[in-house]
Every structure is written in C-alpha cells, then in structure tokens.
C-alpha cells in the first residue's frame, strides 16, 4: 500500500469511527442529571487508535470532542469547560494508540485503559476546577471537596471505560483479520 492510499484509508476509517462513536454516544446506558453518562462512545476511537497509532487516534478523538459538543447537546459554562470536558477529554481517548499494532489481550487492555483513563482525568480536573462551585450531594453523600465530588460525579466515565475495554478485548479476533496498515 503506497502512502497516498494509506493516508486515504486512515482518513476514511477515522471519519467512520468518529461517526460511529458519536452515534454510540446517543445510546446512553445511564445518564447523570447534570451531564455525563455511561455509553460505548469511546470504543470506536480506542479501536481506531489501536489500529493506526496515537497520532491518528488523538486527531480522531479531537474531531469527536468537537462533534460531540456540537451535536450531543454539550453542557458548558464557558470555553474552558468546552475544551476540558469535550475537546481535551475526547482527544485523550486517542492515547489508546500507545499500544498500536498489538492485538493481544494485554495490548488491547493497556491501550484501552490508557485512553479511557486519559478521558477520565480530563473530566475530573475540569469538574474540580470549573464545576466545583455547583456541587451538591451525590450518591447520598454530602460533598464539600470539589476534587472528591468531581471524582465521584465522573465515575460513569470509568464505567464506560471498563465496558469499552471488555468489548475491545472481545473484538481482538475480528481486528486481526483486517489488513495491516504498517
């Protein structure tokens, strides 16, 4: 495969994965009252990053973050929360590409965990620094620390990450049948 074909294939696969991620983002298994949910939105970006690497994965994640804010009914209190909760958080899913080329279970788990934890850390920091003043009792616990509040409030991102990792591991066999991109 020549470089032009490889680039075209990466762009097309990336666009399809961003579209699939956004579509999966609309299917919420559980939804928090002030935004945030459990969904499989991260799965296509994780799979794409594992296949094409961190650079392509970060770019696809960034595109997803912008698209998700615009189409997914994004909740923001300013440009900082748009960047933190959407653009940076979704971009960091592409860090799954650190395990690029590895199709063994360990590689898929490593890549998926890195990408999903990256997203969690971004929304945790954004939640603590920007949304902390809007704290309320969560899960029946009184909150008085914005860092603890944000860590608890954003637990659905970790649940989504665990589901994403499990499904990505189950998809190892089909991924191995795809043509190599190296």
Features of the shown structure:
8 helices; two-stranded antiparallel sheet; mainly alpha; 182 residues; single chain; 2 strands
Task: Please state the CA-atom Rg, rounded to the nearest Å.
Answer: 17 Å
- Percent helix among the residues? 55-70%
Report the structural category. Answer: mainly alpha
Distance between the termini: 9 Å
Number of strands: 2
Q: Count of helical segments?
A: 8
Approximate strand percentage: under 5%
What order do the helices and strands follow?
HEEHHHHHHH
Verbal overview:
The protein is mainly alpha-helical and 182 residues long. The chain contains eight helices and two strands. The chain has a two-stranded antiparallel sheet. The longest helix is centred in the middle third of the chain and has 26 residues. The mean pLDDT is 88.
TL;DR?
It is built from eight helices and two strands. With 182 residues, it is mainly alpha-helical.
What's the arrangement of secondary structure elements?
Elements: H1 3-25, E1 30-31, E2 37-38, H2 42-52, H3 54-71, H4 79-93, H5 105-130, H6 146-153, H7 155-170, H8 172-176
Antiparallel strand pairs: 1-2
